[in-house]
Amino acid sequence: QLLYDLDIVEEKTILEWAAKPSRKFASKEVVADVVRRAQPFIDWLQQADEEDSDEDSGEDIEVSA
Question: Which Pfam family, an example, fits this chain (predicted)?
Fold first, then answer.
């Protein structure tokens, strides 16, 4: 989360990694543990992204008087 907060790693990159975590440099067990520990943060990012999408879609609605 610190890397995200400091704008070192973008939200898109974190979510892409979470969808398909790399096992290239760590064992399957280590990767699974990292994903498990990061899951609350990943869930928070996804929820915030969904809320932003909902807000953006509302901007396109025109109301006739």
Answer: W2
| pTM of the predicted protein model | 0.62
pLDDT digits (tens, 9 = 90+) for 9-21: 899 988 888 888 8
What's CA 18's distance to the chain center, in Å? 7
Domain boundaries defined on the chain: 2-51
Contact 31, 22 (CB under 8 A): yes
SS (HEC) of 6-37: CCCCCHHHHHHHHHCCCCCCCCHHHHHHHHHH
